[in-house]
Design goal:
Elements lengths: L2 H7 L1 H12 L3 E2 L4 E5 L6 E5 L2 H5 L3 H4 L10 H13 L6 E2 L4 E3 L2 E9 L4 E7 L11 H13 L4 H16 L3 E7 L5 E8 L10 E2 L6 H8 L4 E3 L7 E4 L22 H9 L4 E9 L2 E10 L7 H18 L5 H21 L5 H6 L2 H6 L5 E6 L2 E6 L4 H14 L4 E4 L2 H4 L7 H4 L1 E8 L4 E7 L4 E6 L6 E3 L5 E3 L7 E6 L8 H20 L1 H7 L1 H5 L1 H32 L6 H30 L6 E5 H15 L6 E3 L6 E5 H17 L7 E7 L26 E6 L32 H11 L4 E6 L3 E6 L4
Parallel strand pairs: 25-27
Antiparallel strand pairs: 1-12, 2-3, 2-7, 3-12, 4-6, 5-6, 6-7, 8-9, 8-14, 9-10, 11-13, 13-14, 15-16, 15-19, 17-18, 18-19, 20-23, 21-22, 24-26, 27-28, 28-30, 29-30
Length: about 775
């Protein structure tokens, strides 16, 4: 039985055991707990040691008002604190509470059925040398701010916490995705054994306990051997259930927790939660071999320091990790740039092969375009990949799926574990199967555990599995099989970035898109839906690319060399360009979805308005505008035809480097043969226009277009010049014009001579 099976089988029994933690019915003896009704503030429960601390018999207080124990000023202070509570987390009262000659620190929070008030006697402060506690915290934060490396940062954290608390051992403990922990840093007494680098199974700190820490709960147990103090009564006659103590600072200690730590030789603990990105990242665990009381002010300072450490975790990285991230982003930028320049996307992805593999540091990959599978590097067979994809279709719901132990999820993968124990699957299109799969081989890993993790597991004769504290924490080695190296977060981000780039490039390559999906070629409506969905899908990862690049550029400017900065700037520029392409895609997709609003339209007025707008926006260029004869009135969607003339005339304005520029706008019909000119025939298989459908044209004396480009210029995002020449642009204007004209049942084509000029013709159907 492996640990994953154990975790599954013991889930319900662990939950039942943890009920004794949440509803323990007891507290630690170094304080008093009072449970009050809400909002009357009458005693529902009191801890049995109230007689010892305040000279009050517990049963004499039950049902009484809090005023019978505390002065009015303290009751009012508690009420004011309750008004400020916006969550169930405990908050400290602003002032100390005095009862007779004794003073207490107070904590208050709400549960579902009661208000919990906890009081701890104020004891003389522990001597910390020349410096005060606030000074030590300020100095610690100042030191920590100066460290950029995460490993150095965490090590310094343990040293500073040890100086403030005086505990024998301080550890920073990090949780992995399965809940197992690793000691990342340590400060200790010289005579104690080292736990640095050791692993602890998830069962050592069960999921429900981790959930408490995830809410920022600080846990303090000054004496694990101290006798617990019971609550009076054990169960309230009205509530009919024990009191929920899950968030109580004084909550009693579970016997299993006591035995576990005593087996480690520990008598006192202080645990501070580390929260990163609203998730439990790890813990600062403080251990002492003898009972040790830490004043509330010191614990409060440690909690503040823990919050600072949590906020800084996202900004502290290993230099090697940063170098690797920069390398991946550089590869990504170069790769996307290269595949965007070629016509055959599939060949660009797989040739040369290492480029696709290097993007996520894989040893093999499979590019799957519907039923066609191309293998790269070291991979399973085509049939094995095909079966794997069929399995993934029923298991994977997201665009990105990854695992470093595929055989444990998909037993058939055991047959090819040597090449594919790790899988990263990227789903490019949900409309039609378009996937990229990356593989990593099995890597036999040696994990150093703090004792045998299976030693705490007992299988009873009936098959029930129970957990008990381990007896030994000596280093215990385990060889982990059927796993690969884990996929890093930056590798997953690179894969998602590639998805965004490929979607854009696929849409840019209309012919390639048609070959990938014949159904999309037959159905413009389905193509529009795909474009619209893909464009929306691109928004989120695009923002991630842009923001992540900006963070790297701003936050690590001192670390990056000029080449790294230049590549990041290139990535930012590409993300901005992608944003403009997305907007064009959305506009293009809507053309196929909106209904035409056909009305009689005076083309003279429409063209004059377009020219007026262009002349205002392009004052530096004022060509001679020629309209040989009055333009006709036609039945069309005026808004969309305005867009057609805007795109054609805008190009005529831009692509002209002559000293004397001119543009002619006119139309030809079957009876118009001035100067022997008859309507040009559209390219086959288009039919000649009918008498009711004039052929409009826009002619210029600009730079012209080479014959081999006369058809490709109508492809989406197709530009014949560098981005910085002739005013830039996305290369979508002619595509949009063609789409609008085809929706009217018409056709568009061009005749051109390089360096002489171009004439664009279009009809609007019958």
């Amino acid at each position: 039985m492996n640990r994953s099976e154990i975790t599954t089988q013991t889930g319900s029994s662990i939950s039942r055991n943890l009920e004794t933690i949440y509803f323990s019915g007891s507290i630690q003896p170094h304080g008093i707990l009072l449970a009050l009704s809400d909002p009357e503030l009458r005693f529902l429960f009191v801890s049995a040691n109230i007689q010892e601390h305040l000279g009050k018999a517990p049963h004499n207080l039950l049902g009484q008002s809090l005023n019978t124990l505390l002065d009015v000023q303290f009751v009012d202070a508690i009420k004011q604190s309750l008004e400020e509570i916006d969550s169930v987390s405990p908050i400290k009262l602003q002032e100390c509470i005095s009862v007779g000659e004794r003073s207490f620190n107070g904590m208050v929070h709400r549960t579902e059925n009661a208000i919990i008030l906890e009081l701890e006697p104020i004891l003389p402060q522990t001597e910390l040398g020349f410096f005060s506690i606030p000074t030590l915290v300020k100095r610690a934060i100042a030191k920590l701010r100066q460290v950029s490396s995460r490993s150095e940062f965490l090590q310094l954290v343990t040293q500073e916490v040890r100086q403030i608390t005086g505990f024998d051992r301080i550890m920073v403990y990090h949780f992995d995705q399965q809940g197992a922990g690793t000691v990342m840093a340590q400060a200790k007494r010289d005579d104690l054994p080292s736990y640095l680098g050791l692993h602890y199974p998830a069962t050592d700190i069960p999921e429900q306990v981790r959930a408490l820490y995830a809410r920022g709960v600080l846990r303090f147990i000054p004496d694990l051997t101290a006798q617990s103090i019971e609550l009076v009564p054990a169960s309230h006659p009205v509530m009919q259930q024990p009191l929920d103590l899950s968030l109580a600072v004084l909550r009693g200690v579970d016997p299993c927790c006591v035995e576990y730590h005593q087996n480690m030789g520990i008598a006192a603990i202080l645990v501070i939660a580390l929260i990163n990105d609203q998730k439990l990242w790890g813990l600062i665990a403080c251990h002492h071999q003898t009972p040790k009381y830490v004043p509330y002010e010191v614990r409060e300072a440690c909690e503040l320091l823990g919050q600072f450490v949590s906020s800084e975790l996202a900004h502290k990285v290993n230099h090697e990790e940063l170098d690797y991230i920069v390398k991946l982003k550089s590869l990504q930028s170069e790769f996307v740039e290269s595949i965007s320049q070629v016509d055959n996307l599939k060949q660009a992805l797989v040739n040369p092969a290492p480029r696709l593999l290097d993007l996520v540091s894989a040893t093999g990959a499979a590019v799957c375009l519907e039923d066609e599978i191309t293998l790269v590097g070291v991979t399973p067979t085509v049939e094995q990949v095909r079966a794997l994809i069929q399995w993934a279709d029923t298991q994977v719901g997201d665009a990105l799926f990854h695992t470093n132990s595929l055989p444990k999820l998909y037993p058939e993968a055991t047959a090819f574990k040597d090449v594919a124990s790790g899988l990263l699957l990227l789903q490019i299109s949900k409309v039609r199967r378009y996937d990229i799969l990356w593989f990593r081989p099995e890597v036999l890993q040696t994990v150093n555990w703090a004792g045998d993790p299976n030693a705490s597991i007992t299988v009873e004769p009936g098959g029930n599995v129970t957990l008990s504290p381990r007896q030994s924490f000596e280093q215990w080695q385990e060889t982990v099989r059927l796993t690969s190296l884990s996929w890093k977060a930056c590798e997953l981000e690179n894969a998602l970035s590639l998805r965004s780039a490929i979607v854009g490039i696929v849409l840019n390559k209309a012919d390639e898109l048609a070959r990938i999906n014949q159904e999309l070629e037959r159905s413009n409506q389905e193509l529009d839906s795909f474009v619209y969905a893909a464009s929306h899908d691109l928004k989120e990862p695009l923002r991630g690319i842009h923001n992540y690049s900006m963070l790297l550029l701003r936050g690590y400017e001192s670390v990056l060399d000029d080449v790294g900065k230049t590549r990041l700037q290139t990535l930012i520029r590409l993300s901005r360009r992608m944003e403009s392409l997305i907007d064009v895609l959305l506009k293009f997709s809507r053309l196929g979805q909106a209904e035409l609003h056909l009305v009689p339209t005076d083309i003279n007025q429409l063209v004059n308005q377009v020219l007026e707008d262009l002349c205002v926006s392009r004052q530096e260029v004022q060509p001679d505008i020629r309209i040989p004869r009055s333009l006709p009135i036609v039945h069309c969607d005026a808004v969309l035809i305005n867009e057609v003339f805007t795109n054609l005339l805008s190009n005529a304005f831009k692509y002209n480097n002559k000293a004397e520029q001119w543009i002619e706008i006119g139309y030809l019909d079957a009876w118009h043969e001035d100067k022997g000119v008859s309507p040009p025939s559209p390219p086959a298989p288009l039919l000649p226009c009918s008498p009711s459908s004039p052929t409009f044209y826009v002619r210029d004396n600009g730079i012209g277009i080479r014959a081999r480009h006369l058809e490709t210029i109508f492809r989406l995002f197709k530009r014949l010049h560098e981005q910085h020449l002739y005013g830039g642009g996305t290369g979508a204007g002619l595509t949009i014009a063609k789409k609008i004209i085809e929706r009217h049942g018409g056709r568009i084509w061009v005749e051109s001579t390089p360096s002489v000029g171009s004439t664009f013709y279009f009809t609007l159907g019958d």
